[in-house]
Write a structure and sequence with these properties.
This protein is of the alpha+beta class. It has one domain: Protein Transport Mog1p, Chain A (3-Layer(aba) Sandwich), CATH 3.40.1000. The chain is 15% helix and 36% strand. It has 2 helices and 9 strands; from the N terminus they run ββββαββββαβ. The chain has helices at residues 74-95, 168-173, and strands spanning 14-15, 21-26, 39-45, 60-66, 105-113, 118-127, 135-147, 152-160, 176-177. A 7-stranded antiparallel sheet has the order 2-3-4-8-7-6-5. β5 (105-113) and β6 (118-127) form a beta hairpin. The longest helix is centred in the middle third of the chain and has 22 residues, at 74-95. It starts with 13 loop residues before the first strand and ends in a 5-residue tail after the last strand.
């Protein structure tokens, strides 16, 4: 990733009850140029994200804070998240001397629709080029919404290899936006 990928210093968009490390990137994201969005991505990492022995290993969230409607469907989410992780793992893998990286597989199903919000759940099988150099199966939730106050579209992704009834999901499900949205 080049330094131009990082967003200007911004106020954090996600509120989490835990002291999680954060990063902000601007779209288009260098490692996933096929994601043709304009806006910001905020990434938040659980304290144990990079520790294979931790219950929080690979537990993290990211928010896409977009200028226009991403027109999501299950198939578009699958394609976007696969492109995202394939690009990221390719860059990280090359930096770690790993060149033969299996493609990411993603499955989403629509779980719930309310006024402006659509919730999807799914699984991501991604090669972990960061730590274990093996396939990680992540549970994922994606909540897509429109924020009328800021006129932004939001997609909050939460990930963990833990089952949805594990305690890490209590924290993940408690993540909220720091901006008021009606």
């Amino acid at each position: 990733m080049t330094s131009s990928t990082f967003a200007q210093e911004e106020t954090l968009l996600l509120q989490i009850d835990e002291p999680w490390r954060s990063e902000q990137l601007t779209f288009p994201i260098a490692f996933a140029p096929s994601l043709d969005y304009k806006g910001i991505e905020e990434v938040r990492f659980a304290k144990g994200w990079g520790k294979p022995e931790s219950e929080e290993f690979w537990t993290y969230a990211f928010l896409w804070y977009l200028d226009e409607d991403p027109k999501l469907t299950e198939q578009k989410l699958e394609k976007d998240i696969a492109a995202y992780f394939d690009g990221l793992m390719d860059v990280v893998g090359k930096g770690n001397g790993v060149t033969d990286i299996p493609e990411t597989t993603v499955v989403f199903v629509k779980k719930e629709i309310t006024n402006t919000t659509t919730t999807y759940i799914g699984k991501v099988k991604v090669f972990d080029a960061f730590f274990t150099k093996s396939i990680q199966t992540l549970q994922v939730k994606a909540v897509a919404d429109y924020c009328a106050d800021t006129k932004k579209y939001t997609v909050l992704f939460t990930f963990s290899p833990q089952a949805y009834d594990h305690t890490v999901w209590k924290t993940l499900d408690g993540i909220t936006l720091s901006v008021d949205c009606k």
